[in-house]
Amino acid sequence: MATPYGSIGSVQKDDSAESDDVFRNEYKRYKAKDPAPKLDEVIDFGASRNKKVIPVEIDPKNITDQESLTRLGLLHPSEWRVFGLEGFLGFLFILNPWRRGSQRYWVTRCLRDFPCKPNVTNLDKLQHGVDNVWKEGYSEYRNYRLQGKGKKTQPKTLLHKLRWTTLGYHYDWDKKEYHQERYTEFPPDLSQLSTHVAQTLGFPHYKPESAIVNYYGLDSQLGGHVDHQELDYSKPIISFSFGQTAIFLLGGKTKSVKPTAMFLQNGDIMVMSGDTRLAYHGVPKILKPPIVGQLPEGLCEDERRERLHDSMLPSAMEETWEQSALFMEECRINITVRQVVAEGKGFGKRSCDDELQTEPKRTKEAQGS
Ligand code: OGA
Ligand code: MN
What is the pTM of this model? Predict the structure, then answer.
């Protein structure tokens, strides 16, 4: 029997804590390769007859700037399919609300622009500086992909080692906090996107101040964690997914709550606010595409034909899309946008600072750094 102090009748420290860590058990189950997990309980919002999935109506009063949404690549909100989830107050899921082909703009930004100085990436810890990982790493990556198929012993490339980029207020993983002075300009386009999405979903006055862009290979994971470093929990985290499909686990306030598994697919947007803002979550698995090298629908070549004349996608980006496409065959990108500081308040300390998280475990292929 489990007590808060350990198992009765057991001399072994902490094994009850482990069996109470239901989140971890589920995480391990979904991460496993052999046996591969059954996916029948994983919620697919696009096809779901799951009783926990609740359709949500957007309040037309919140649709204030349709033109901007269109320019940013989104469909008219009346066409969005929005869902909540029973038992998760403040959780919202928008099923791929993008206009055809427009996700390519954001993918390109995440690959070519965001991981450049002055933004911060995990590669800054390497001995030699990396100012522009795409420029420095793409041809090596391409050679690897075109020559290295099947040769598992080949070392991975610099671009494979890119795991995260931070924007705006750069979270300090060592000190476990944001600093007022560790700030670079938040990308204006991503700021507009997040503000408009927030407004449309009923969160006016949202100020995107920080983002983590995660890059996942097909064997990557993101360990279970809570995002409680921000100083204003009343503001949502907005998550944008691109590329290959993830299994995402959403749990409760403690690890003893069994998490719900769902697919996050190319184009999906997810919001964690209210009660769900401080829920445990993680990514135990990226699904391999059904056919090797297959891109998700919204990113594949056919989309190219339908040019969006009023969109932000410059034609130069179209011409180099082929390169991004090669990378996205084996990649998932997730952007989580956060408001760090409460309106009218500065960088104060939280009373629960001791409990703040360390960098969630990010694993990417066995030989990752
Ligand atoms: C994060 C996060 C989830 C995802 O970056 O904090 O939880 O879907 N990402 O990649
Ligand atoms: Mn998170």
Answer: 0.90
